[in-house]
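seq as requested:
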Amino acid sequence: IRTVRGGEHNKIMMLASISTMPSWTQLRKKLSDLPMVDRIELLALSAKQVDMIVHYRGEADSLERAIVSRNLRLVKNKDYWVVSRD
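struct tokens:
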């Protein structure tokens, strides 16, 4: 069991840009494997995009760095982030 001590419980809206179901599966695994991510709440799934809420602990900056460190592309907008494998 992995735990991150302390840190506020936060959530952020993310849109995942995907091309295939396997690309979504791999992207979801990369996000789920981040130590600060508690869970991923799926809102909508289409052929090209997944809408989700990522529940995490700690600071948004830490989450951002962790996502980028997994070789994922991240674009931050005012109300949501867009993440993709490209």
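The longest helix spans residues 21-32.
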